[in-house]
TrEMBL record:
The keyword Glycosyltransferase does not apply. InterPro entries: AB_hydrolase_Est10, AB_hydrolase_fold, Hydrolase_4. This is Alpha/beta hydrolase. Keywords: Hydrolase, Signal. GO terms for molecular function: carboxylic ester hydrolase activity. Residues 56-175 form the Serine aminopeptidase S33 domain. It comes from Pedobacter miscanthi. Pfam families: Hydrolase_4 (PF12146). Residues 1-18 form the signal peptide. SUPFAM superfamilies: alpha/beta-Hydrolases (SSF53474).
Length: 296
């Protein structure tokens, strides 16, 4: 139980679909190719999913945890006309390097680790772009949970990236997220007995249990000029959703093309819940971007 609580409180994770390295036999809707690429001196491995016809391309960016490539989710996107690169996280699966996370006693939301993971995502976007040859479809990042900090950093590093989609991605600092997650303590009934005012007061006043330089996604997001979509669950107990949407509203007043959608009955796992609605919403949003690009 102590180990479970430590994992829960010291990083955001989402239970992904079953993860295996796919064979690269041709599918009816798309082809798959296993690839390798280098980031910060480390060899990472992943798989490109390439439909016969596609209107956009995305790199999938993990949440926290020892996550390998997201084969089933990538297949779903490819069947819907999106080219995908998904890769094993640094130090996990077939990728080299050292994994950082509470499972091995290290801090996976330290600013240095988040910057390193952002560099990995940037390198992945470069390799996906190369595999699309002369296709002029928009290239973006799609990520989950902890990727809310990683993707803005990665998008700043690569001007080829034209959009980003974040499922349950925090728009608060890493330390603010920890204060909130310590407060909810994994209680799935938290919102039955607490108010938004309770949560805000705790986030503002609680003492930090860990000391490290906080990462604030607001900084990177305020310097980007690409559209972004956030999908939140109203019953999330891992990130403070209302505070995140409030900060997105501030960014929107600055003319940034950011949009969010709240699903009141869902929790943190918006992409992998029983409801297909958030993923379908994201697919339609990306399709609109691809259509707009063709018109220009």
């Amino acid at each position: 139980m102590k180990l479970y609580l430590f994992l829960l409180l010291f990083g955001l994770s989402i239970k992904l679909f079953g993860q295996t390295v796919p064979d690269t036999s041709r599918q009816s809707d798309f082809a798959m190719e296993n690839v390798t690429f280098t980031s910060a001196g480390v060899l990472l491995e992943g798989t490109v999913f390439k439909p016969k016809h596609f209107y956009a391309a995305v790199v999938l960016v993990h949440g926290s945890g020892q996550e390998t490539r997201m084969v089933e989710f990538a297949s779903l996107l490819a069947k819907n006309g999106i080219a995908v690169l998904t890769y094993d996280k640094r130090g996990v699966g077939k990728s080299g390097g050292v994994y950082a996370g509470p499972e091995v006693g290290t801090n996976n939301i330290d600013s240095l680790n988040l910057q390193l993971l952002a560099s990995d995502a940037k390198a992945a976007s470069n390799i996906l772009s190369a595999h699309l040859s002369n296709n002029r479809v928009p290239l973006g990042f799609m990520g989950f949970s902890q990727a809310g900090w990683i993707i803005p950093l990665a998008a700043k590093k690569n001007r080829m990236v034209k959009f980003m989609v974040l499922f349950s991605g925090p728009v608060v600092t890493t330390l603010e997220q920890l204060r909130f997650q310590f407060y909810t303590n994994g209680n799935t009934k938290f919102w039955d007995t607490h108010t938004e005012a309770d949560a805000r007061k705790h986030i503002s006043n609680d003492a930090d249990r860990y000391q490290f330089v906080a990462t604030d996604p607001f900084d990177a997001l305020s310097r980007l000029s690409i559209p972004g979509l956030w999908l939140f669950g109203g019953k999330d107990i891992q990130i403070p959703v209302s505070l995140s949407t409030e900060r997105l509203d501030v960014l929107k007043t600055k003319g940034l093309a950011y949009q969010y959608q709240l699903f009141p009955e869902l929790g943190h796992n918006t992409a992998f819940s029983q409801s297909p609605i958030p993923t379908n919403f994201a697919l339609q949003w990306i399709e609109n971007i691809g259509t707009d690009k063709k018109k220009k």
